[in-house]
Amino acid sequence: MSSGGETRCALVTGAAGGIGRAIATRLESEGLSVVAADLEPDSDGPGHPVACDLTGAEGNRAAVQAALDEFGRLDVLVPNAGVQHVAPIDEFAEERWDQLIALLLTSPFLLAKYAWSALAESGEGRYVAVASAHGLVASPHKVAYVAAKHGLLGLVKTLALEGADRGITATAVCPGFVRTPLVENQIADQARANDLPEERVLEEVILAPHAIKRLIEPEEVAAVVALLAGPEGSAFTGAALPMDLGWTAR
User: Fold this and answer.
1) What radius of gyration do the chain's Cα atoms show?
2) Annotated catalytic sites, by residue?
3) pTM over 0.85
4) For a Cys staple, 133 with which of 23, 167, 183, 244, CB 3.0–4.6 Å?
């Protein structure tokens, strides 16, 4: 995955664990230099760790600048950082709405804005957002997450059109439920919201929309991101790729 003999650089957000860590590991294994940005980065994890708060403009600007300062270029941008909150609409705290929209929608916009020139200079710039099946369908008690992920797909489509003449592609990966702390940490909240014991949540709530009843592994998502970031992914742009075990086939 090199251009002109130079090593390509990727910026992955939310890279300290879960899907982001798997993506950073996979891209690094394929020869990319990786900047692994997170609120609390793992110094023992893959890539070059960078601490930044992506809920504000300065943190997003700093993450892009860290890649440029460390490697002198930026070829692949993977907005992945995420958080979840589960509550009925009438109990959904406004500050949690603001937090989720900032991290899941405004941050991907700001990262694109600040990285746009560098991605264009790459000649094969790739913007690969980690969205969700919730960018395509909805579930109750996740109003901010669903709204943000729907918005993210609109952002990706717009970036694809704006980037077409500048050598930049923009895509989104839309997984179903992935085996990550983000999913595991929902169990107690889903039990309360759905009036179920916690031991029934995985089967009756989380896996209910999947046609194939299992969790997706982070490495499976990373493999799709690597495809889209590599030479075989050059024909994909403006697309949202479901990898949801049949969820959106219903």
Assistant:
1) 17
2) 145
3) yes
4) 244
